[in-house]
Design brief:
By secondary structure, the chain is an alpha/beta fold. It is built from 14 helices and 13 strands.
Length: 335
Amino acid sequence: MALREEFEFSVETDAVGETRAWTAPEVAARAQSLIAEVETAIVGKRDTVRRAVISLICKGHILLEDIPGVGKTTLAKALARAIGGEFRRVQFTPDLLPADVTGSAVFNQRTSEFEFRAGPIFGNVILADEINRATPKTQSSLLEAMEEGQVTVDGETRMLPDPFFVVATQNNLEMTGTYPLPEAQMDRFFTRLSLGYPDRAGEIDVLSQQQTAKPLDRVRTVVSLTDLRAMQIAVREVFVSDKMRGYIVDVVRATRESNQLLMGASPRGSLHLMRASQAAALLEGETHVSGNHVKQMAVSVLAHRVIGRSELKSKGVTPEFVVERILETVPVPIG
């Protein structure tokens, strides 16, 4: 099958259909400019920024699990500014209610009618900060929004803005007053990422950049929301052969058969791994997925969807370790 050099698709702009044809390198150039712009605020974390952008153009949501103070909020704000999107922040606390997230109907005394007051989830980039501090009931209020792009309040369904991207954060330290995310919600996150401490040179750069100004203030809009929607369409046009689809399924099935895991990845994990591999290929200007693209994204996409055996954790056998070993054992198809 001949690979297409151009992606042809329609994008709705101000209610007018506009047909564009972009080559794969052109889409890659836009994605790389987005990565570079976010990097002006996030120093020395190119791989994490790249994976965050991949999640964004795949219409996925990310879980940033890390220690406090390494730039999780800055990453979310930088992404919003770089795409010219509306940034909204929800601080999750034990007393936060679902209506505080989605919005609620409020009685207007002047009109004697109930009016809907939109919650902070109505934005393009939503920072769900310290999501594990809220109760499971409030955590679950995000589920419909993340999966369906809509919320239901008082029996009425309301669509969320497009694009809609959730960056949820949680500290990976066991702290008082936290509630672990249920497996159903973990599975809805496209990737789980971590920024980690910067290296010595990177931390010196952070001090230099922030001595007189905030690097976040320098982040410009380099990709419009319309272009982002076009990139999200283009990802789906990247060719995936039958052999590559089989390889993705074999990797995911291996997590279900591993004796080091109590639970393997779901079929949603297979779909998300395929989509992430398509985006990884597109960022390189490629029009087809290879085994290397699958390997690049497997740990970020699958590790948070599996449950390791508790008795192996003390031996350093983490879900990430198991997925890495699976990638070493499952053969990559040739051709």
